[in-house]
Specification:
The complex is a heterodimer of chains A (168) and B (1006).
Chain A: H1 5-28, H2 41-47, H3 52-55, H4 70-77, H5 85-96, E1 102-103, H6 116-121, H7 126-130, H8 147-156
Chain B: H1 4-22, E1 30-31, E2 47-52, E3 61-67, E4 70-76, H2 89-92, H3 94-98, E5 108-110, E6 116-118, H4 121-138, E7 144-148, H5 153-165, E8 170-173, H6 180-190, E9 197-198, E10 206-208, H7 220-232, E11 242-246, H8 251-254, E12 258-261, H9 267-280, H10 292-299, H11 304-311, H12 315-327, E13 332-334, H13 345-358, E14 366-367, H14 380-391, E15 397-401, H15 405-408, H16 415-419, E16 424-427, E17 441-442, E18 453-458, E19 461-465, H17 478-487, H18 501-517, H19 523-533, E20 535-537, E21 568-574, H20 587-591, E22 599-600, E23 605-607, H21 609-615, E24 621-627, E25 630-638, E26 646-651, E27 690-699, E28 703-704, E29 730-731, H22 733-738, E30 768-773, H23 782-790, H24 798-802, E31 811-816, E32 832-837, E33 856-858, E34 864-866, H25 876-880, E35 887-888, E36 915-916, H26 922-934, H27 947-951, E37 957-961, H28 968-973, E38 978-979, E39 991-994, E40 996-997
Parallel strand pairs in B: 7-8, 7-15, 10-11, 10-13, 11-12, 15-16, 16-17, 21-26, 23-25, 29-40, 30-39
Antiparallel strand pairs in B: 2-3, 3-4, 5-6, 5-17, 9-14, 18-19, 19-20, 21-27, 22-28, 24-25, 24-27, 30-37, 31-32, 33-34, 35-36, 38-39
Helix pairs in contact in B: 4-17, 5-17, 5-18, 6-13, 9-11, 9-12, 9-13
Classes of the chains: A mainly alpha (168), B alpha/beta (1006).
């Protein structure tokens, strides 16, 4: 090695920075994974005025808001838009007995215990954290769910900033 | 070759850059909805189902807590009269037996080559129906036999009817531990062949002749609760009111005020001597006046003087026992335990019943007319008769249901060999065991948490058992197997109206129970109430009984033990955790220490240190223990809690087969026992042999979770050099008057007011705390199992336990003290205090200032918080903790499938490198606050109960809000018995311990 050591070091650093830059650029693109069925919130909420709670029905009594059961979807779609290819996918799930394996967009790590019910009691709007879902044709994550972002709101709204509130 | 300097240069520059690569995008996580959402289930909110525990015949009511369709925790059912909201260590560990990774995945058939191969239910049942069909068609009687656990109600009715349809009456309810000598004695003494009911809570003086009622005897949860009520009512002047007479200092004996280590067989004489003394002192109750004649002539040869040599108990002590037993009325004497069932068993029970009679306890603390399910047990003699019939090839099909007789019967009785003569052996066992190793067909039954059922432990209590989840494996309810085979056997289908057990059970409850107890209600009104309550419960009035003259029926010859004269009497006792070995494959129960010896993951033979010295045996020496009937190989544990001349072993280890946690540990003491039945009652002779011990030359490491005196004193909670006074956990009555309530809790020799460096923490809303009553804690370890279940505490195994790396957040420390009261007496003061040790949530926590990343801190509600996400694993906090209650994850926790289904989703599963400890069940605190918020109210006292406090059958642990002056906790901490552990360190714990009240004077001193 000897006389090329600084060259080698600079090379590694440059490559890493390049890789990092690529990653940073990539990370700018919002997280909007493809779902097994192309469910369109804009259609259901803005066009047809279905309330959030109709499908995410546990939000007032559980830490989890919940996603609608296949039965809930079929409640309308037994009749509505029967011929749409997406509804056919839904029907296939129902008939095969397999629930729709949605991809979680707002996924917190396992060591965070988030409680929807408490936030609802505090009159936090769904859109505060989840963004304008009612106008999303494909659910997109509008923030990075970093703890600092949670704390900003907790501080300004004078909610508990005790670690044990969420971490236990 | 790169030079060191060059290497460092490259790494120094490029190293930080490498960290950028570590941030990968998140793994995709799925969000799975229901197909059809169930009506009453809200994901994220637990659903509770009433059911009952079937780990032993006590039949405690249980609430099964489920999340998203999985059972995650077992709690006691507060509405249920047995247990009253509490569960013992076995009940808490039952969730692990549900998810036991070694459970049979489905039915199995033994093929021509003798191998077990998997099959499906259709094939398995077809084999059964074809064989049974032949039997039924041929009309041959009594060719089918059933040996299984105690059944009552609908399952009993079904099984009996099913067998009768096959021409058989051979239905044997077999339990490893029976109470036949007692039942025979009640038949002789009162003409009632039933077990009596005990009312310990009303007793003012208790004598137990070896009945280990805090562990496995009869109904330990209920009796522990009653025992604590009895203890709370005792006077402070004479706080000793419990005397235990046995060969071994069991857990029950450890909780006695006085223990009489007695020669095997001398118990009867002591009982008769006490009766003699009662009569002599003129203390017998008038109710026995008409019987005085025969009683006096019966006990005449057994005066305290005449029996002193045999029993070893001084005359003055016997007289004092007689005096107190009569004057502290009502009192109660309990008969022999399982381990002391020898040739004298019936006589002992008769003597004890008589003792109760002369003291006037009949109808008060001892009542009749409330038959127990245990009255239906088959005797051991009946099992021997079955074995004989098996050998004579009279049995064509043998069914084994929740029974493992190859392991639990004395090997010398030849059950395993007799099985060879039965053409078809069918087992319904869920786990591989010594009996399924010889079975031809295995039809695994559901676990009780997966199936319907009912059980009535005693008259007036009929419990319902509901499935709390879908079956984990491809098992099938035995009731369903019986009914579906009945459908396919010619001539049987018409006799059975229902094709499945669910319908059968409903029909039974409608026609047999509702019509009796709620005839005015319709089924639709009746059934939901039953499910909500957990069964039907009503008080049953006891009946009065008349004492009969049994003087000719009591046999009083010395107890004979087979074996060499210079051998040691062998005591085989039930294991509080494993019971009869059924739970040995439960990893929690292996890792939670034996409450008396604190040993884990092992089997051993207990030898008194004096005997050990004589035989040249040291702790850990492997010996062969030989009786006239067989031998076992076990390591020696030197244990002073034995009558010299006795060696003891627990039944439970020594399992074999594909049981990953149980196999290859210890040995089975049933190899050593005599095959004979006790002639009077037909019971098993548990105490029947003398054994010799021979060194094998090998050594075996026995792992104890509590440091012994020779170990580093810092590992024991109450390190003597730091402690202010000796025996800090105990208090004498005279000291109570010295300490005024309201004063700072201070141990005698202190000293100055504690000086704090920093201003105190503020707790604006709540300040969580606990009070632990050492006078109530029996050391049973139920709380430890509850904590394991609630908080996803991992198991580390024997090797890691030896390194001190066990993960229990809560441990019971067993403190033994030299008796402060010296006496030359046969009555020994056990001086054992069980101290639950858990995170004290100190106000001035030594662990907090030393964490470099602020992962532990004092939260505004008084808890010492541990944030797993911040912890980097320096372990400085654990180093600084004087109570040594912080546990470090040295490796990642493993939960072999399907044990991970039991994990509590409300508690983070910790990775390696992270510190953990008791959190006062913060998840329950949060859930309680959430519930109060939902109901738009403030938290009230009793809203939040940590897992340990909830299950304690002795109600020793109380949790509450110290900031609420009206809470029960605030009242409790003002008790003059209160103190803090290691008070002199000024950690100011949130937990107040209440000292155990111990007698100050020798027993026979006024």
């Amino acid at each position: 090695m000897g006389k090329y050591v600084w060259t080698a070091a600079a090379g590694v650093l440059l490559l890493s920075l390049l890789a990092g830059a690529v990653w940073l650029v990539q990370a700018e693109e919002p997280y909007a994974p493809d779902q097994p069925i192309a469910f369109d919130h804009k259609v259901h909420v803005t066009d047809y005025n279905i309330q959030c709670f109709y499908c995410h029905s546990y939000v007032d009594r559980s830490p989890f808001a919940g996603v609608p059961s296949v039965e809930r979807c079929m409640g309308c779609h037994l009749i509505v838009a029967r011929d749409s290819p997406e509804i056919e996918k839904l029907r296939n799930y129902q008939q095969s007995g397999e629930p729709v394996p949605w991809i979680k967009v707002y996924a917190l790590p396992r060591f965070v215990h988030f409680n929807h019910e408490a936030h609802l009691r505090a009159e936090v709007q769904c859109q505060s954290c989840h963004g304008a879902v009612e106008s999303m044709s494909k659910v997109t994550r509008v923030n990075d769910l970093q703890m600092g972002w949670c704390l900003d709101c907790h501080r300004s709204e004078e909610a508990s900033v005790d670690c044990l509130t969420c971490h236990y | 070759m790169i030079k060191r300097r060059d290497f460092l240069k490259v790494m120094g520059v490029s190293g930080p850059a490498a960290l950028l690569e570590a941030c990968a995008p998140p793994q995709t996580e799925q969000l799975i909805p229901y197909l059809v959402s169930p009506d009453n289930i809200v994901p994220g909110v637990p659903a509770y189902y009433t059911t009952q525990c079937r780990e032993c015949p006590a039949g405690c009511g249980m609430l099964a807590k489920t999340r998203e369709g999985r059972v995650i925790k077992a709690e006691g059912n507060p509405n249920h009269p047995v247990g009253q909201g509490h569960l013992c260590i076995r009940g808490q560990a039952s969730v692990q037996s549900l998810y036991n990774p070694d459970r049979f995945r489905g039915p199995l058939l033994r093929d021509e080559g003798g191998q077990l191969r998997t099959t499906d239910w259709e094939q398995a049942e077809e084999l059964l129906t074809s064989r049974l069909g032949q039997i039924k068609a041929s009309g041959s009687e009594q060719r089918v036999a059933w040996m299984g656990r105690l059944l009552t109600g609908s399952m009993e009715q079904l099984t009996r009817q099913w067998l009768q349809s096959l021409g058989s009456e051979r239905l044997l309810f077999y339990e490893t531990f029976d109470y036949e000598p007692l039942r025979r004695a009640t038949q002789i003494a009162f003409d009632r062949s039933e077990l009596p009911s005990y009312h310990l809570q009303d007793a003012r003086f208790l004598i137990s002749f070896g009945a280990d009622f805090l562990e496995t005897w009869r109904s330990n949860v209920e009796l522990m609760g009653d025992f604590q009520r009895m203890r709370k009512a005792r006077s402070t002047e004479r706080p000793d009111n419990f005397v235990h007479i046995s060969q071994r200092l069991s857990l029950t004996a450890s909780n006695a005020d006085w223990w009489i280590p007695i020669t095997p067989g001398a118990e009867v004489q002591l009982a008769l001597a006490i009766i003699h003394s009662i009569l002599e002192q003129g203390l017998a109750v008038p109710e026995v006046d008409s019987d005085r004649g025969w009683i006096e002539s019966l006990v005449e040869p057994y005066s305290p003087e005449a029996t002193q040599n045999a029993t070893g108990v001084e005359v003055s002590s016997v007289q004092e026992l007689a005096r107190r037993f009569s004057q502290d009325s009502p009192s109660l004497a309990l008969g022999g335990g399982v381990s002391s069932t020898g040739e004298q068993a019936v006589s002992l029970e008769l003597a004890v019943l008589l003792l109760n009679a002369v003291a006037g306890n009949l109808g008060k603390t001892l009542t009749f007319g409330i038959p127990s399910a245990l009255d239906q047990l088959a005797t051991y003699q009946e099992v021997l008769d079955l074995i004989q019939d098996m050998n004579q090839e009279k049995i064509e099909v043998l069914f084994l249901h929740e029974a493992n007789p190859v392991f639990t019967l004395p090997q010398s009785c030849g059950f395993a060999e007799a099985l060879e003569k039965v053409p078809l052996v069918v087992s319904f066992s869920r786990l591989p065991d010594e009996t399924t190793a010889r079975a031809d067909l295995i039809l695994p039954d559901h676990h009780f948490l997966e199936s319907w059922g009912d059980f009535s432990p005693r008259a007036g209590v009929v419990s319902i058992q509901q499935p709390a989840m879908q079956p984990v494996f491809d098992s099938k309810a035995t009731g369903d197997v019986l009914l579906s085979t009945a459908q396919n056997i010619d001539g049987m289908a018409s006799e059975f109206e229902h094709s499945n057990y669910f319908d059968w059970l409903h029909a039974y409850w409608d026609s047999e129970i509702r019509t009796q107890v709620a005839a005015e209600q319709s089924w639709e009104e009746f059934w939901p109430d039953i499910l909500r309550q957990g069964g039907h419960f009503q008080e049953v009035e006891p009946v009065t009984v008349a004492l009969r003259n049994f003087s000719t029926q009591i046999r009083l010859q010395p107890e004979g033990l087979e074996g060499p004269e210079d051998g040691h009497a062998l005591l085989v006792y039930p294991s509080a955790a494993f019971f009869d070995g059924r739970n040995a494959n439960n990893s929690w129960l292996q890792e939670i220490p034996d409450p008396v010896t604190q040993l884990v993951w092992d089997g051993w033979v207990e030898v008194h240190p004096e005997s050990g010295r004589e035989m040249g045996l040291q702790e850990g020496d492997v010996v062969t223990v030989t009786s006239p009937y067989g031998s076992v190989t076990l390591p020696v544990h030197l244990f002073a809690g034995l009558k010299v001349g006795v060696v003891a072993m627990s039944l439970g280890q020594g399992r074999s087969g594909e049981l990953r946690y149980a196999s290859g540990r210890g040995d089975n003491p049933m190899r050593l026992l005599s095959p004979q039945a006790e002639p009077e009652s037909g019971s098993l002779l548990w105490r029947s042999v003398r054994v010799t011990l021979a060194k094998t030359g090998e050594r075996h490491q026995l792992v104890s979770l509590q440091a012994r005196p020779q170990d580093h004193p810092r590992d024991t909670l109450i390190a003597r050099e730091v402690q202010d006074t000796p025996f800090a956990e105990q208090i004498f009555p005279s000291q109570l008057s010295d300490s005024a309530s309201g004063e700072e809790h201070d141990t005698a020799s202190s000293h100055h007011e504690p000086i704090d460096f920093y201003p105190p923490h503020e707790h604006p809303d709540h300040q969580w705390g606990m009070a632990i009553d050492l006078d109530s804690c029996t050391g049973c370890n139920a709380c430890v199992a509850a904590c394991y279940a609630e908080n996803n505490v991992p198991i580390v195994g024997k090797e890691k336990c030896a390194q001190g790396r066990e993960m229990s957040w809560l441990r019971i420390e067993r403190h033994l003290h030299d008796p402060p009261v010296t006496q030359e007496s046969a009555l020994v003061q056990p001086q054992v205090t069980s101290v639950p040790a858990l995170c004290q949530h100190c106000h001035n926590a030594p662990c907090e200032p030393v964490c470099p990343v602020f992962a532990t801190y004092h939260n505004p509600e008084g808890l010492n918080a541990q944030v797993y996400a911040r912890c980097v694993g320096t372990r400085y906090c654990s180093n600084n903790c004087p109570y040594k209650v912080r546990r470090f994850n040295w490796s990642a926790s493993e939960f072999p499938e399907p044990l991970e289904l039991q994990l509590n989703p409300d508690v983070t599963v910790r990775t390696s490198g992270v510190m953990e400890k008791c959190t006062f069940c913060v998840q329950r605190i949060q859930a309680g606050k959430n519930r109060a918020g939902r109901e738009e109210r403030q938290l009230v006292d009793g809203d939040i109960t940590p897992a340990c406090a909830q299950t304690c059958p002795a109600e020793a642990i109380l949790f509450g809000d110290l900031a609420d002056p009206d809470s029960r906790l605030s009242q409790r901490v003002a008790d003059p018995r209160g103190y803090h552990l290691l008070e002199g360190l000024n950690t100011r714990p949130a937990i107040t311990y209440l000292k155990k009240l111990v007698p100050e004077k020798p027993f026979d001193e006024e």
